[in-house]
Amino acid sequence: MPVSLTMKSVVYDTYSVSGKTLPDIAKSIKSKGPKDPNDNKKVAFLTTTELECLTAKGKYAADGKPKIEKKTGWFEVKAKVSALKLVLHPTVRCPKRSVSGLSPRALIEWYRFYACCLVHEAQHVDKAKKECEKIAKELNKLKGTGLADTEAEALKLAKEDLMREINNHIFIDRDRLNEVHRKFDHSTHHGETKGALLDTSIG
């Protein structure tokens, strides 16, 4: 397939949390944690995914033979993608795992919670990658059209039209990725149904 998708390694962007008890840690997360753009709530972990499309570096070619308009004698040329790179950049904003001052039981609960959250965020990344694979297939099918009095000019216009189509598609796709994250968080209550909930009753 001419459109290729590369996924960069996940970048873990950490922030410090502090407290001698789990309720203190939870309070620290509430003040320092990232805000989920979908529901404006502070969360402990947040995955964001940015899809970069290297449109200007892409290669585009004529799709089939040009048509000649009978009335004007102008060339109508279609353009298709011959090579285009998509790059997915995933980032996970998360608390630093090391905390000091917790009791042994509380520390075990903190590590358990942390591990469950990482599993949940990894699923976010996986779902975003699958959505980007669909986007790559859609971009592969896009065509551009150019009309001019020479074949070369018509092809140039067709390629420019195709690049515009790609950029429009990518602009809309940013919302699509956000929607993937929103739906997944909604269905799992931000991973709480899978154990990503800190039990602050443990002393």
Shape: rod-shaped
Q: Report low-confidence residues grouped into runs of 5 or more.
A: none
Mean pLDDT: 95
Strand content: 15-25%
| Fraction of helical residues | 40-55%
Distance between the termini: 56 Å
Main beta sheet strand tally, sense and closure: 7 strands, mixed
Present the secondary structure layout.
Blueprint: E1 3-7, E2 11-15, H1 22-32, E3 46-53, E4 59-62, E5 67-68, E6 75-95, H2 104-141, E7 144-148, H3 151-188
Parallel strand pairs: 1-6, 2-6
Antiparallel strand pairs: 3-6, 4-6, 5-6, 6-7
Notes on the structure:
The protein is an alpha/beta fold and 203 residues long. The protein is 43% helix and 25% strand. Strands 1, 2, 3, 4, 5, 6 and 7 form a seven-stranded mixed β-sheet that branches. A hairpin with a 6-residue loop joins strand 5 and strand 6. Helix 2 runs antiparallel to helix 3 (151-188).
Gist?
The protein is built from 3 helices and 7 strands.
Based on the model shown, name its key terms:
single chain, 7-stranded mixed sheet
